Amino acid sequence: MPRVRFAPSPTGLLHIGSARTFIFNWLYARHNNGTLVLRIDDTDVDRNTESSVNSIFDGLKWLDLGWDELYHQSERIDLHRKVAWKIFEKGLAYRDFTPASAEESKDHSDGPWLFHPAMRELSAAESQRRADAGEPFVLRFRVPREASHPVEFRDAVYGSQSKLPADIEDFALLRSNGLPTYHMASCADDIDLNITHIIRGQDHLTNTFKHVLIFEAAGAAPPQFAHLPLLIAPDGSKLSKRKHGPVVSVTTYRDAGFLPHAFVNFLCLLGWSPKDNREQLTRQELVDAFSFEGINHSNAVVNFTDADPFDPKAVWLNAELIRTMPLEELAKQLLPFVPNAELSKMLRVAPLIQERIKLLSDVSSVADFFFLDVLAPYDSVELIPQKGDAAMALAVLTRAREVLTSVEFNHDALDHALRAAAQELKIKPGQMFQPIRVAVCGRKNAPPLFETLEVLGRETTLKRIDAAHAQLRSAFTLV
RNA sequence: GGCGCUAUCGUCUAACGGUUAGGACGGAGCCCUCUCAAGGCUUAAAUACGGGUUCGAUUCCCGUUAGCGCUACCA
Fold this sequence. Notes:
- The chain is mainly alpha-helical.
- It has 21 helices and twelve strands.
- The strands form five sheets. It has a three-stranded parallel β-sheet with strand order 1-2-3.
- The structure holds one RNA strand.
């Protein structure tokens, strides 16, 4: 049974790239009947924040996928240290007493910095003596320099990888404050938690050589690796909160009214494909179709602009899902996006807007007039129908008021009565409907008229027609 | 600078050496229609560049260019 892990570091809001890594881990685990471990990588005490941890949980819970086991790396530091010193005892790591302040002298301009020769060659006795004297040091991995054969591993996505030791620096295992580095903590935990597959972003591909070295030094077989192409911005740069703002954060999508599954579906299509032209997949279909073979090698652009912060494909996927939702479910989901709305009302509004909204939050701009007591001000010109004038609008409203006072408020009755009224006035149905629509909705673009009136009811309808009538008369000083 | 990864329509992607290079989103147009949507139909749009290998390269190899990543006592 495979065991995979998602290991976010809580240094900010949950990033959509992290969310995708989580999703791919989840898919792999579910596809293979495995276990998904959530591990909070919080060893960097200076940068970790409580709110960031909360943001991660908020985001992951919203995705509604779940996980099987939970660990906090900060509670496992003793284990990390133990493994580090085990590696030291094997002679595969050494103390480096170079002060942190001298680290800037590392020369990167001409090839990579590899190690401080004097420190790497320090005798065991001398090393021990200085440590006993309380001199601070970092514990560095002793990358084998004699061996000329490369470090190798096979990535499930990118294939065979190899790197010469001459290109790998003696990286740190333990910091001078005694805390493990990311590499040390991560590998020690992966070993201890029996992780069989590490699925993570491609930014770790070159780090993996170090990790292979650690696994071997610790006497453990390296797990399988699968690196994912990165998510990038339209300009090709990496997505960053500082540069691209809220679009990189999962909670932004939640707050904008994305359905969790639409978001998951969208993210899956970034860097992975089922290879059979399917775009909309259910959760189960994703689980069934997922494999490392379907993962691409090149970075994927999340297509957003300043004007349009969400990738159009994500929006489309969301709209498609909204259209196929059961109405009761849709109404419930819509409720939080309209202040003071009641479920009973929303249940009647939902069918009218189901195919007119792309995001749940659109309800507030598309259906606001159903929930308002008094309409927001609108331009009287809007009341004037196509190829008509103010007089026509006034005539329509006058006649409409008469008709709507007596007609039964259901779709067919309204349909017949209003069309008949149009015929009487010798105008087109469209010319009849527009002034009424604007009068009751406050705008030209709205759901179909008869259904709308039905939901609004006679009282509100007449009140708004009267208001429009009065507004029109004063605006055009008509009799 | 060194090392690594990558390169198909604007974007996401398909095409185990042989296709009129396919699909989706978005765009444009038409139809439907009480507005807006939804739906239907049509359409524009791509193999980064240069060399090989081959009867034949989007596909394999090399180079160039470009992008990204790593090169921390961050993760």
